[in-house]
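User: Fold this; tokens only.

Assistant: Input:
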Amino acid sequence: MRVCPKCHERLEAVDVRGVRVDTCQTCAGIWFDAGELKQLRSSGPSAWVDLESRVAPRTEETTASPGHMMKTCPQCSLPMHAYRFLYNSNITLDECNQCGGIWVDDNELAAMAEYLAQAEKELSGLPKGMLTPEEMDRIASKARMSPHAVSGIGGLMSALRAVQRPPGP
């Protein structure tokens, strides 16, 4: 039995777009096993928001917590580490180094979807073919990221924000 890392209630399995995730019916947090967050996102841009709308906290009091507290992995029972979604957002997620699972608190999926939509909007204004593979490798190197991490839109946005853009021609 998996237990919520935030309020220690039993997690319940929910199927969304072919992905089975564990949700807390008390605080509305969601546990994603390794790869499930990405798998759900690949089923469509609105997938994260759809899931979040299906899970609501039982009481408002459970969703408010002072600061970010250390959480324990529902699968491994090891402490998880907190990190920023796409490095520079104000969205803090928790990940288990052992199993690769990710804990998402209430309303964070919607915030993540909104953040990605904004990043895509910012990138849509850039001319097509603007960055060559060599330029992406250079940006990744300056941002201290792997070239593979820069390949997606979120990774590219993080890398571009991490380094100063070179002046245009």
